[in-house]
Design brief:
Helices cover 33% and strands 23% of the residues. With 107 residues, the chain is an alpha+beta fold.
Length: 107
C-alpha cells in the first residue's frame, strides 16, 4: 500500500480486480481500499497488499521469504510482505503461494 492520504489509483484498482479474479477458487477472499491501494483478506485476515502503483505483495515469514527472494521479489518497506514474482503471478503456482500466505497471516 502507499502512505496514509495517498489517492486511490486506477492501477491499484485494476490490479486488485485481477488478483481477485485469479483467486476466485478460494472462498472468503475480499479486498478493501487502503492508503491508495488495497488490502487483500481471507476471512478477515490480511494476507496481501496491492500498492498504489498496482504492485501485488503477499505476507511472508522467515521461512517463506527465501522462496520469494530467490524469484526476484522485493520487500514492501519494513513490512512482512514481498512482491509476487511475475513467474508466480502468471502461473498455476499462484494459488499455492497465496494459500501459504493465508496460513502465515493466521499464525
Amino acid at each position: 500500500m502507499g502512505q496514509k492520504g495517498d489517492k486511490h489509483t486506477n492501477e491499484a484498482q485494476l490490479s486488485a480486480e485481477l488478483i481477485l479474479e485469479k483467486l476466485s477458487s478460494i472462498n472468503g477472499i475480499t479486498s478493501k481500499k487502503m492508503f491508495g491501494g488495497h488490502g487483500i483478506f481471507h476471512e478477515g485476515k490480511m494476507f496481501g497488499i496491492i500498492d498504489s502503483k498496482g504492485k501485488a505483495f503477499l505476507r511472508t515469514n522467515d521461512d517463506s521469504k527465501t522462496a520469494f527472494i530467490e524469484k526476484g521479489a522485493e520487500q514492501h518497506s519494513k513490512m512482512p510482505y514481498h512482491s509476487i514474482p511475475d513467474s508466480i503471478l502468471n502461473s498455476d503456482n499462484l494459488i499455492k503461494w497465496v494459500e501459504k500466505s493465508i496460513r502465515i497471516s493466521k499464525q
